[in-house]
Amino acid sequence: MTFSGEDCKLKFNNRRNLSKISLEITHTFTEGVTIIMKLKDLLKSVKIDSSCPEQLKAKLNEIDIKKIAYHTKEVGADTLFVCINGHKTDGHKYANQAVINGASVIVVEKFIEGIDVLQLKVSDSREALAQLSSNFFGHPSQSMSLFGVTATNGKTTITYMTEEIFKAYQLKTGLIGTILVKYDKEIEMSRLTTPESYDLQQYLAKMREHEITHVSMEVSSSALELKRVRNTEFDVVAFMNISPEHIRLHESFEAYFDAKASLVRNAPKTSTAILNIDELLLIPLANQTKAQVVTFGIENSSGTISVSDIQFSSGMPSFTVHIQKPFKTLSGNLIEPVSFGLEMSVPGYHSIYNALTTVVTGLVNDIPIEVVQQGIKNFCGVERRFQILYDNEFKVIDDLLLNQNNIHSCMETISHLTYNKLHLVHALRGSNGPEHSTEIAETLAACFDQMNVAKIILTTASSHVEKKDEVTPEELAAFLKVMEQNNIEVAMFEELDDALEFGVAQLEQEDILLLSGAHSMDQGARKTLELIKELYPTVDHEKINQVLESKLIGMDTYKLAENF
Protein backbone atom coordinates (compact mmCIF):
# COMPACT_ATOMS: atom_id res chain seq x y z
CA MET A 1 0.00 0.00 0.00
CA THR A 2 1.34 3.41 -0.97
CA PHE A 3 -0.09 6.52 0.64
CA SER A 4 -0.79 9.81 -1.09
CA GLY A 5 -2.86 12.90 -0.34
CA GLU A 6 -2.79 15.18 2.72
CA ASP A 7 -0.02 14.79 5.24
CA CYS A 8 -0.65 13.88 8.84
CA LYS A 9 1.75 12.94 11.62
CA LEU A 10 1.38 10.23 14.23
CA LYS A 11 2.99 11.42 17.45
CA PHE A 12 3.57 9.36 20.54
CA ASN A 13 5.19 10.11 23.89
CA ASN A 14 8.30 8.35 25.08
CA ARG A 15 10.81 9.15 27.84
CA ARG A 16 13.63 10.42 26.68
CA ASN A 17 43.32 -6.47 28.95
CA LEU A 18 42.88 -8.02 26.09
CA SER A 19 46.01 -9.53 27.68
CA LYS A 20 45.02 -13.11 27.04
CA ILE A 21 43.42 -14.46 23.91
CA SER A 22 41.17 -16.69 25.97
CA LEU A 23 38.35 -14.51 24.70
CA GLU A 24 35.97 -16.21 22.30
CA ILE A 25 35.93 -14.79 18.78
CA THR A 26 32.45 -14.98 17.27
CA HIS A 27 30.60 -13.64 14.25
CA THR A 28 27.63 -12.68 16.40
CA PHE A 29 26.95 -12.46 20.09
CA THR A 30 24.78 -14.99 21.85
CA GLU A 31 21.21 -14.41 20.71
CA GLY A 32 18.67 -13.50 23.37
CA VAL A 33 14.94 -14.05 23.46
CA THR A 34 13.15 -13.32 20.17
CA ILE A 35 11.56 -9.87 20.22
CA ILE A 36 8.09 -9.39 18.77
CA MET A 37 6.57 -5.90 18.82
CA LYS A 38 3.36 -4.45 17.50
CA LEU A 39 4.16 -1.88 14.84
CA LYS A 40 2.15 0.72 16.74
CA ASP A 41 4.42 0.32 19.80
CA LEU A 42 7.55 0.28 17.67
CA LEU A 43 6.62 3.65 16.14
CA LYS A 44 6.45 5.51 19.45
CA SER A 45 8.16 8.91 19.10
CA VAL A 46 8.81 8.29 15.40
CA LYS A 47 7.45 11.15 13.32
CA ILE A 48 5.58 9.70 10.35
CA ASP A 49 5.16 12.11 7.46
CA SER A 50 2.74 9.98 5.45
CA SER A 51 -0.89 10.26 4.42
CA CYS A 52 -3.07 8.34 6.85
CA PRO A 53 -6.23 6.60 5.64
CA GLU A 54 -8.70 5.56 8.30
CA GLN A 55 -7.52 1.97 8.30
CA LEU A 56 -3.93 2.98 9.14
CA LYS A 57 -4.32 3.04 12.91
CA ALA A 58 -5.93 -0.41 12.91
CA LYS A 59 -3.24 -1.74 10.58
CA LEU A 60 -0.47 -0.43 12.82
CA ASN A 61 -1.87 -2.47 15.69
CA GLU A 62 -2.23 -5.62 13.58
CA ILE A 63 1.31 -5.91 12.23
CA ASP A 64 3.93 -7.81 14.29
CA ILE A 65 7.57 -6.91 13.78
CA LYS A 66 10.26 -9.42 14.67
CA LYS A 67 13.25 -7.62 13.23
CA ILE A 68 14.52 -4.27 11.95
CA ALA A 69 16.97 -4.17 9.06
CA TYR A 70 18.71 -1.57 6.91
CA HIS A 71 20.50 -4.11 4.69
CA THR A 72 18.58 -6.56 2.52
CA LYS A 73 20.74 -9.53 3.51
CA GLU A 74 19.41 -9.15 7.06
CA VAL A 75 15.74 -9.14 6.00
CA GLY A 76 13.46 -12.07 6.82
CA ALA A 77 9.79 -12.59 7.56
CA ASP A 78 8.07 -9.85 9.61
CA THR A 79 10.94 -7.40 9.13
CA LEU A 80 10.65 -3.62 9.13
CA PHE A 81 13.14 -2.42 6.49
CA VAL A 82 14.52 1.12 6.73
CA CYS A 83 15.80 2.73 3.52
CA ILE A 84 18.81 4.84 4.46
CA ASN A 85 21.16 6.79 2.24
CA GLY A 86 24.73 5.57 2.52
CA HIS A 87 27.95 7.08 1.20
CA LYS A 88 27.87 4.83 -1.87
CA THR A 89 24.24 3.87 -2.45
CA ASP A 90 20.62 4.66 -1.62
CA GLY A 91 18.68 2.09 0.39
CA HIS A 92 15.51 2.93 -1.54
CA LYS A 93 16.99 1.05 -4.50
CA TYR A 94 16.78 -2.17 -2.51
CA ALA A 95 13.25 -1.87 -1.17
CA ASN A 96 11.87 -4.33 -3.72
CA GLN A 97 14.48 -6.90 -2.74
CA ALA A 98 13.64 -6.34 0.92
CA VAL A 99 9.98 -7.15 0.18
CA ILE A 100 11.01 -10.28 -1.72
CA ASN A 101 13.07 -11.32 1.30
CA GLY A 102 10.08 -10.94 3.61
CA ALA A 103 9.85 -7.32 4.75
CA SER A 104 6.30 -6.44 5.80
CA VAL A 105 6.86 -2.69 6.36
CA ILE A 106 9.18 -0.25 4.57
CA VAL A 107 10.31 3.07 6.07
CA VAL A 108 11.09 5.53 3.28
CA GLU A 109 11.94 9.17 2.67
CA LYS A 110 10.13 8.99 -0.68
CA PHE A 111 7.35 6.65 -1.72
CA ILE A 112 8.35 3.80 -4.03
CA GLU A 113 6.10 2.70 -6.89
CA GLY A 114 5.17 -0.96 -7.15
CA ILE A 115 5.72 -1.86 -3.49
CA ASP A 116 2.69 -3.74 -2.17
CA VAL A 117 3.52 -3.60 1.55
CA LEU A 118 2.95 -0.76 3.99
CA GLN A 119 5.26 2.21 3.39
CA LEU A 120 5.81 4.79 6.13
CA LYS A 121 7.30 8.06 4.95
CA VAL A 122 9.63 10.00 7.26
CA SER A 123 11.69 13.11 6.73
CA ASP A 124 14.91 11.48 7.97
CA SER A 125 15.22 7.70 7.78
CA ARG A 126 18.46 7.63 9.79
CA GLU A 127 16.80 9.44 12.65
CA ALA A 128 13.84 7.07 12.37
CA LEU A 129 16.18 4.05 12.42
CA ALA A 130 17.77 5.28 15.64
CA GLN A 131 14.42 5.76 17.37
CA LEU A 132 12.99 2.49 16.06
CA SER A 133 16.07 0.58 17.19
CA SER A 134 15.99 2.06 20.67
CA ASN A 135 12.29 1.24 20.95
CA PHE A 136 12.80 -2.29 19.64
CA PHE A 137 15.48 -3.17 22.18
CA GLY A 138 13.83 -1.39 25.11
CA HIS A 139 16.16 1.62 25.44
CA PRO A 140 19.15 -0.40 26.72
CA SER A 141 21.46 2.58 27.30
CA GLN A 142 19.25 3.54 30.24
CA SER A 143 20.36 0.38 32.04
CA MET A 144 24.09 1.14 32.27
CA SER A 145 26.61 3.91 32.82
CA LEU A 146 27.68 4.87 29.32
CA PHE A 147 30.84 6.90 28.58
CA GLY A 148 31.28 8.35 25.09
CA VAL A 149 34.39 10.15 23.85
CA THR A 150 34.95 12.07 20.63
CA ALA A 151 38.26 13.46 19.33
CA THR A 152 40.37 13.52 16.21
CA ASN A 153 43.00 11.45 18.01
CA GLY A 154 43.02 9.27 21.11
CA LYS A 155 39.47 7.91 21.25
CA THR A 156 40.53 4.27 21.19
CA THR A 157 43.20 4.67 23.85
CA ILE A 158 40.87 6.62 26.13
CA THR A 159 38.14 3.98 25.99
CA TYR A 160 40.59 1.18 26.79
CA MET A 161 42.18 3.15 29.61
CA THR A 162 38.74 3.93 31.04
CA GLU A 163 37.82 0.25 30.86
CA GLU A 164 40.97 -0.55 32.83
CA ILE A 165 39.78 1.75 35.63
CA PHE A 166 36.34 0.13 35.58
CA LYS A 167 37.94 -3.32 35.77
CA ALA A 168 40.17 -2.24 38.65
CA TYR A 169 36.95 -1.51 40.57
CA GLN A 170 35.68 -4.99 39.60
CA LEU A 171 32.83 -3.62 37.47
CA LYS A 172 31.33 -5.59 34.59
CA THR A 173 32.46 -3.68 31.53
CA GLY A 174 31.73 -3.34 27.83
CA LEU A 175 33.66 -1.57 25.08
CA ILE A 176 32.59 -0.31 21.65
CA GLY A 177 35.12 1.17 19.26
CA THR A 178 37.37 1.15 16.22
CA ILE A 179 39.00 -2.19 16.91
CA LEU A 180 36.22 -4.26 18.42
CA VAL A 181 33.05 -4.57 20.44
CA LYS A 182 33.51 -6.69 23.54
CA TYR A 183 32.12 -7.69 26.89
CA ASP A 184 32.70 -10.70 29.12
CA LYS A 185 34.30 -13.33 26.85
CA GLU A 186 32.62 -12.16 23.66
CA ILE A 187 34.38 -10.21 20.91
CA GLU A 188 33.31 -8.96 17.51
CA MET A 189 35.77 -7.12 15.28
CA SER A 190 34.47 -3.69 14.29
CA ARG A 191 33.40 -2.47 10.88
CA LEU A 192 32.83 1.11 12.00
CA THR A 193 34.29 3.20 14.82
CA THR A 194 30.72 3.71 16.02
CA PRO A 195 28.19 1.10 14.86
CA GLU A 196 25.04 1.95 12.89
CA SER A 197 22.19 2.79 15.27
CA TYR A 198 20.44 -0.60 15.01
CA ASP A 199 23.68 -2.50 15.63
CA LEU A 200 24.60 -0.17 18.50
CA GLN A 201 21.27 -0.69 20.26
CA GLN A 202 21.56 -4.44 19.72
CA TYR A 203 25.04 -4.49 21.25
CA LEU A 204 23.83 -2.49 24.25
CA ALA A 205 20.85 -4.81 24.67
CA LYS A 206 23.13 -7.84 24.71
CA MET A 207 25.36 -6.12 27.25
CA ARG A 208 22.28 -5.49 29.38
CA GLU A 209 21.42 -9.21 29.17
CA HIS A 210 24.90 -9.96 30.50
CA GLU A 211 24.45 -7.43 33.32
CA ILE A 212 27.18 -5.12 32.04
CA THR A 213 27.11 -1.97 34.18
CA HIS A 214 29.75 0.31 32.62
CA VAL A 215 30.46 0.81 28.92
CA SER A 216 33.20 2.85 27.21
CA MET A 217 32.47 3.93 23.65
CA GLU A 218 34.17 5.81 20.83
CA VAL A 219 31.90 8.33 19.13
CA SER A 220 33.05 9.44 15.67
CA SER A 221 32.06 12.65 13.93
CA SER A 222 30.44 10.57 11.18
CA ALA A 223 28.34 8.71 13.74
CA LEU A 224 27.15 11.99 15.20
CA GLU A 225 26.39 13.53 11.81
CA LEU A 226 24.65 10.35 10.60
CA LYS A 227 22.65 10.07 13.85
CA ARG A 228 23.92 6.64 14.82
CA VAL A 229 23.94 7.59 18.52
CA ARG A 230 20.52 9.28 18.56
CA ASN A 231 18.37 7.95 21.43
CA THR A 232 21.49 6.70 23.20
CA GLU A 233 21.68 8.09 26.72
CA PHE A 234 25.24 8.96 27.71
CA ASP A 235 26.12 9.51 31.36
CA VAL A 236 29.58 10.93 30.66
CA VAL A 237 30.78 12.53 27.42
CA ALA A 238 34.19 13.89 26.52
CA PHE A 239 35.57 16.06 23.71
CA MET A 240 39.35 15.93 23.75
CA ASN A 241 40.90 17.46 20.64
CA ILE A 242 40.19 18.42 17.06
CA SER A 243 42.28 18.95 13.95
CA PRO A 244 41.28 19.09 10.27
CA GLU A 245 42.42 15.62 9.18
CA HIS A 246 38.87 14.27 8.73
CA ILE A 247 37.24 17.20 6.95
CA ARG A 248 36.81 15.16 3.77
CA LEU A 249 33.98 13.28 5.52
CA HIS A 250 32.15 16.57 6.12
CA GLU A 251 31.33 19.70 4.17
CA SER A 252 33.83 21.87 6.06
CA PHE A 253 35.88 22.11 9.22
CA GLU A 254 32.96 23.95 10.83
CA ALA A 255 30.64 21.05 9.99
CA TYR A 256 33.23 18.60 11.36
CA PHE A 257 33.51 20.59 14.59
CA ASP A 258 29.75 20.96 14.97
CA ALA A 259 29.27 17.23 14.52
CA LYS A 260 31.71 16.47 17.32
CA ALA A 261 30.44 19.32 19.50
CA SER A 262 26.91 17.93 19.34
CA LEU A 263 27.97 15.14 21.71
CA VAL A 264 28.53 17.80 24.37
CA ARG A 265 25.80 20.23 23.32
CA ASN A 266 23.14 17.51 23.45
CA ALA A 267 24.32 15.93 26.69
CA PRO A 268 21.47 15.75 29.26
CA LYS A 269 21.37 17.69 32.51
CA THR A 270 22.03 14.53 34.50
CA SER A 271 25.32 13.82 32.71
CA THR A 272 28.89 15.12 32.95
CA ALA A 273 30.79 16.64 30.02
CA ILE A 274 34.60 16.60 30.07
CA LEU A 275 36.52 19.21 28.05
CA ASN A 276 40.22 19.68 27.34
CA ILE A 277 40.67 23.45 27.60
CA ASP A 278 44.16 23.37 26.11
CA GLU A 279 42.12 23.10 22.89
CA LEU A 280 40.91 26.69 22.48
CA LEU A 281 38.00 25.76 20.24
CA LEU A 282 36.51 23.61 22.98
CA ILE A 283 36.38 26.28 25.69
CA PRO A 284 33.06 27.88 24.58
CA LEU A 285 31.31 24.50 24.74
CA ALA A 286 31.33 24.76 28.54
CA ASN A 287 28.47 27.27 28.19
CA GLN A 288 26.62 25.36 25.48
CA THR A 289 25.47 22.29 27.38
CA LYS A 290 23.06 21.42 30.19
CA ALA A 291 25.51 18.84 31.53
CA GLN A 292 27.82 19.36 34.48
CA VAL A 293 31.13 20.46 32.90
CA VAL A 294 34.53 19.34 34.16
CA THR A 295 37.51 20.94 32.42
CA PHE A 296 41.23 20.19 32.52
CA GLY A 297 44.41 21.42 30.93
CA ILE A 298 48.14 20.93 31.09
CA GLU A 299 49.11 24.33 29.71
CA ASN A 300 45.88 26.05 30.80
CA SER A 301 45.62 25.74 34.58
CA SER A 302 42.32 27.61 34.98
CA GLY A 303 40.05 24.56 34.71
CA THR A 304 38.48 22.20 37.19
CA ILE A 305 41.67 20.11 37.09
CA SER A 306 45.31 21.01 36.48
CA VAL A 307 48.59 19.08 36.58
CA SER A 308 52.12 19.71 37.79
CA ASP A 309 55.44 17.94 38.32
CA ILE A 310 55.41 16.15 34.96
CA GLN A 311 58.36 13.79 34.69
CA PHE A 312 59.36 11.06 32.26
CA SER A 313 61.11 7.85 33.23
CA SER A 314 62.02 5.77 30.17
CA GLY A 315 59.37 7.77 28.34
CA MET A 316 56.63 6.92 30.86
CA PRO A 317 55.01 10.02 32.39
CA SER A 318 54.28 10.60 36.03
CA PHE A 319 52.64 13.76 37.35
CA THR A 320 50.46 15.30 40.05
CA VAL A 321 46.75 15.90 39.50
CA HIS A 322 45.13 18.87 41.22
CA ILE A 323 41.35 18.98 41.57
CA GLN A 324 40.93 22.73 41.97
CA LYS A 325 37.15 23.01 41.97
CA PRO A 326 34.55 20.61 43.37
CA PHE A 327 32.24 18.62 41.10
CA LYS A 328 29.62 15.93 41.61
CA THR A 329 29.54 12.25 40.82
CA LEU A 330 26.68 10.74 38.84
CA SER A 331 25.10 9.67 42.12
CA GLY A 332 25.30 13.19 43.54
CA ASN A 333 28.32 12.81 45.83
CA LEU A 334 30.70 15.77 45.99
CA ILE A 335 34.33 15.44 44.93
CA GLU A 336 36.29 17.99 46.94
CA PRO A 337 39.54 19.68 45.89
CA VAL A 338 42.52 17.37 46.40
CA SER A 339 45.89 16.52 44.85
CA PHE A 340 47.25 13.07 44.05
CA GLY A 341 49.95 11.48 41.91
CA LEU A 342 49.62 9.35 38.80
CA GLU A 343 52.14 6.96 37.25
CA MET A 344 51.58 5.64 33.75
CA SER A 345 52.75 2.49 31.97
CA VAL A 346 52.44 3.95 28.47
CA PRO A 347 54.75 6.61 27.04
CA GLY A 348 54.15 10.06 25.62
CA TYR A 349 53.13 13.58 26.58
CA HIS A 350 49.78 13.07 24.83
CA SER A 351 49.10 10.15 27.18
CA ILE A 352 48.65 12.66 30.01
CA TYR A 353 45.61 14.14 28.24
CA ASN A 354 44.19 10.65 27.77
CA ALA A 355 44.76 9.85 31.43
CA LEU A 356 43.07 13.03 32.67
CA THR A 357 39.97 12.18 30.66
CA THR A 358 39.80 8.74 32.20
CA VAL A 359 40.50 10.05 35.70
CA VAL A 360 37.43 12.30 35.55
CA THR A 361 35.32 9.49 34.07
CA GLY A 362 36.33 7.18 36.90
CA LEU A 363 35.72 9.76 39.62
CA VAL A 364 32.27 10.80 38.41
CA ASN A 365 31.37 7.10 38.41
CA ASP A 366 32.11 7.08 42.17
CA ILE A 367 35.34 5.13 41.81
CA PRO A 368 37.85 5.92 44.61
CA ILE A 369 41.03 7.79 43.73
CA GLU A 370 43.29 4.90 44.72
CA VAL A 371 41.42 2.58 42.32
CA VAL A 372 41.67 5.18 39.54
CA GLN A 373 45.42 5.39 40.17
CA GLN A 374 45.74 1.61 39.96
CA GLY A 375 43.65 1.42 36.78
CA ILE A 376 45.87 4.00 35.08
CA LYS A 377 48.98 2.09 36.17
CA ASN A 378 47.50 -1.19 34.90
CA PHE A 379 46.89 0.18 31.40
CA CYS A 380 49.66 -0.96 29.06
CA GLY A 381 48.39 0.34 25.72
CA VAL A 382 46.25 -0.58 22.74
CA GLU A 383 47.18 -2.47 19.61
CA ARG A 384 48.57 -0.24 16.86
CA ARG A 385 48.51 2.85 19.10
CA PHE A 386 52.21 3.33 19.87
CA GLN A 387 52.28 -0.30 20.89
CA ILE A 388 55.72 -1.45 22.04
CA LEU A 389 55.90 -4.95 20.61
CA TYR A 390 59.41 -5.79 21.77
CA ASP A 391 61.83 -4.00 24.10
CA ASN A 392 65.12 -5.71 24.73
CA GLU A 393 68.19 -5.59 22.48
CA PHE A 394 66.20 -3.20 20.32
CA LYS A 395 62.68 -1.85 20.29
CA VAL A 396 59.85 -2.58 17.88
CA ILE A 397 56.95 -0.11 17.95
CA ASP A 398 53.68 -0.22 16.01
CA ASP A 399 51.68 2.97 15.38
CA LEU A 400 49.15 4.12 12.81
CA LEU A 401 50.52 7.57 11.85
CA LEU A 402 47.23 8.42 10.17
CA ASN A 403 47.58 12.19 10.30
CA GLN A 404 49.77 15.08 11.39
CA ASN A 405 48.77 14.86 15.04
CA ASN A 406 49.46 11.13 15.11
CA ILE A 407 52.91 11.68 13.66
CA HIS A 408 53.80 14.54 16.01
CA SER A 409 52.59 12.58 19.06
CA CYS A 410 54.52 9.49 18.00
CA MET A 411 57.76 11.36 17.34
CA GLU A 412 57.43 13.36 20.56
CA THR A 413 57.03 10.12 22.47
CA ILE A 414 60.06 8.55 20.76
CA SER A 415 62.11 11.64 21.68
CA HIS A 416 61.81 10.60 25.34
CA LEU A 417 63.31 7.18 24.58
CA THR A 418 66.99 6.26 24.41
CA TYR A 419 67.96 4.76 21.05
CA ASN A 420 70.65 4.69 18.38
CA LYS A 421 68.91 4.72 14.98
CA LEU A 422 65.24 4.84 14.04
CA HIS A 423 64.15 2.64 11.13
CA LEU A 424 60.71 3.38 9.69
CA VAL A 425 58.67 0.91 7.63
CA HIS A 426 55.66 2.81 6.37
CA ALA A 427 52.69 1.36 4.49
CA LEU A 428 51.34 4.11 2.26
CA ARG A 429 47.63 4.68 2.67
CA GLY A 430 45.48 4.52 -0.45
CA SER A 431 42.07 5.96 -1.37
CA ASN A 432 42.79 9.29 0.34
CA GLY A 433 44.18 11.25 -2.60
CA PRO A 434 47.61 12.68 -3.43
CA GLU A 435 47.03 15.69 -1.14
CA HIS A 436 46.88 13.38 1.87
CA SER A 437 50.03 11.56 0.72
CA THR A 438 51.82 14.89 0.40
CA GLU A 439 50.72 15.99 3.87
CA ILE A 440 51.89 12.77 5.51
CA ALA A 441 55.19 12.83 3.62
CA GLU A 442 55.90 16.46 4.54
CA THR A 443 55.12 15.82 8.20
CA LEU A 444 57.39 12.78 8.31
CA ALA A 445 60.19 14.54 6.42
CA ALA A 446 60.16 17.42 8.90
CA CYS A 447 60.88 14.96 11.72
CA PHE A 448 63.62 12.92 10.08
CA ASP A 449 66.67 15.07 10.86
CA GLN A 450 65.94 15.40 14.56
CA MET A 451 64.87 11.73 14.87
CA ASN A 452 68.03 10.31 13.22
CA VAL A 453 66.19 8.58 10.37
CA ALA A 454 68.52 7.67 7.51
CA LYS A 455 65.86 6.54 5.05
CA ILE A 456 62.25 5.50 4.82
CA ILE A 457 61.27 1.95 3.93
CA LEU A 458 58.08 2.37 1.95
CA THR A 459 55.51 -0.16 0.75
CA THR A 460 52.19 -0.07 -1.03
CA ALA A 461 51.43 -3.52 0.48
CA SER A 462 49.60 -4.51 -2.68
CA SER A 463 48.59 -7.98 -1.50
CA HIS A 464 47.20 -6.73 1.80
CA VAL A 465 44.60 -4.18 0.73
CA GLU A 466 41.19 -4.40 -0.82
CA LYS A 467 40.64 -2.92 -4.28
CA LYS A 468 39.10 0.25 -2.84
CA ASP A 469 42.18 0.90 -0.66
CA GLU A 470 44.87 0.37 -3.29
CA VAL A 471 47.49 3.11 -3.57
CA THR A 472 47.08 4.98 -6.83
CA PRO A 473 50.09 6.00 -8.97
CA GLU A 474 49.26 9.64 -8.17
CA GLU A 475 49.31 8.99 -4.40
CA LEU A 476 52.64 7.19 -4.60
CA ALA A 477 54.16 9.87 -6.84
CA ALA A 478 53.07 12.64 -4.44
CA PHE A 479 54.75 10.89 -1.49
CA LEU A 480 57.98 10.17 -3.40
CA LYS A 481 58.15 13.75 -4.68
CA VAL A 482 58.30 15.11 -1.12
CA MET A 483 61.00 12.60 -0.17
CA GLU A 484 63.07 13.58 -3.22
CA GLN A 485 62.68 17.29 -2.46
CA ASN A 486 64.01 16.66 1.05
CA ASN A 487 66.88 14.39 -0.13
CA ILE A 488 65.49 11.46 1.83
CA GLU A 489 66.44 8.01 0.60
CA VAL A 490 63.49 5.70 -0.08
CA ALA A 491 63.69 1.91 -0.12
CA MET A 492 60.55 1.06 -2.07
CA PHE A 493 58.79 -2.32 -1.93
CA GLU A 494 55.51 -3.31 -3.50
CA GLU A 495 54.92 -6.11 -1.00
CA LEU A 496 54.61 -5.70 2.77
CA ASP A 497 56.61 -8.85 3.55
CA ASP A 498 59.61 -7.63 1.57
CA ALA A 499 59.57 -4.21 3.25
CA LEU A 500 59.38 -5.76 6.71
CA GLU A 501 62.20 -8.21 6.01
CA PHE A 502 64.40 -5.34 4.81
CA GLY A 503 63.53 -3.28 7.89
CA VAL A 504 64.18 -6.09 10.36
CA ALA A 505 67.55 -6.79 8.71
CA GLN A 506 68.66 -3.21 9.49
CA LEU A 507 68.29 -3.61 13.25
CA GLU A 508 71.31 -3.23 15.51
CA GLN A 509 71.70 -2.90 19.27
CA GLU A 510 69.60 -0.06 20.78
CA ASP A 511 67.83 0.69 17.49
CA ILE A 512 64.10 1.28 17.08
CA LEU A 513 62.02 -0.25 14.30
CA LEU A 514 58.80 1.72 13.82
CA LEU A 515 55.96 0.12 11.85
CA SER A 516 53.38 2.57 10.58
CA GLY A 517 50.44 2.93 8.23
CA ALA A 518 46.78 1.96 8.33
CA HIS A 519 44.94 -1.21 7.23
CA SER A 520 47.68 -2.69 5.07
CA MET A 521 50.08 -2.67 8.03
CA ASP A 522 47.61 -4.48 10.29
CA GLN A 523 49.48 -7.75 9.80
CA GLY A 524 52.85 -6.03 10.10
CA ALA A 525 53.33 -6.70 13.82
CA ARG A 526 52.82 -10.44 13.52
CA LYS A 527 55.04 -10.76 10.46
CA THR A 528 57.77 -8.59 12.01
CA LEU A 529 57.90 -10.53 15.27
CA GLU A 530 58.08 -13.82 13.41
CA LEU A 531 60.89 -12.43 11.23
CA ILE A 532 62.80 -11.28 14.32
CA LYS A 533 62.64 -14.78 15.81
CA GLU A 534 63.91 -16.17 12.52
CA LEU A 535 66.71 -13.66 11.87
CA TYR A 536 67.85 -13.11 15.46
CA PRO A 537 67.86 -16.50 17.24
CA THR A 538 69.05 -15.02 20.57
CA VAL A 539 66.05 -12.71 21.07
CA ASP A 540 63.61 -13.41 23.90
CA HIS A 541 61.20 -15.79 22.15
CA GLU A 542 59.00 -16.06 25.24
CA LYS A 543 58.32 -12.31 25.28
CA ILE A 544 57.57 -12.29 21.58
CA ASN A 545 55.22 -15.26 21.87
CA GLN A 546 53.34 -13.55 24.70
CA VAL A 547 52.67 -10.57 22.43
CA LEU A 548 51.60 -12.81 19.56
CA GLU A 549 49.23 -14.77 21.81
CA SER A 550 47.48 -11.61 22.98
CA LYS A 551 47.07 -9.97 19.58
CA LEU A 552 43.84 -9.66 17.65
CA ILE A 553 44.66 -7.26 14.83
CA GLY A 554 46.47 -8.96 12.00
CA MET A 555 46.09 -12.46 13.35
CA ASP A 556 44.14 -15.15 11.51
CA THR A 557 41.08 -14.49 13.67
CA TYR A 558 40.95 -10.98 12.31
CA LYS A 559 39.74 -12.45 9.04
CA LEU A 560 36.41 -12.93 10.79
CA ALA A 561 35.79 -9.22 10.45
CA GLU A 562 35.67 -9.54 6.67
CA ASN A 563 32.56 -11.71 6.92
CA PHE A 564 30.46 -9.40 9.09
From TrEMBL:
Residues of the signal peptide: none
Keyword Cell division: yes
Cell cycle keyword on record: yes
Start and end residues of each Mur ligase central domain: 149-360
Transmembrane regions listed in the UniProt entry: none
Gene Ontology molecular-function annotations: acid-amino acid ligase activity; ATP binding
Keyword list, A-Z: Cell cycle, Cell division, Cell shape, Cell wall biogenesis/degradation, Ligase, Peptidoglycan synthesis
Domain called Mur ligase N-terminal catalytic: residue spans: 65-136
Pathway per the UniProt entry: Cell wall biogenesis; peptidoglycan biosynthesis
Residues covered by the Mur ligase C-terminal domain: 384-518
GO BP annotations, alphabetical order: cell division; cell wall organization; peptidoglycan biosynthetic process; regulation of cell shape
This protein's name: UDP-N-acetylmuramoylalanyl-D-glutamate--2,6-diaminopimelate ligase
Species assigned in the record: Desemzia incerta
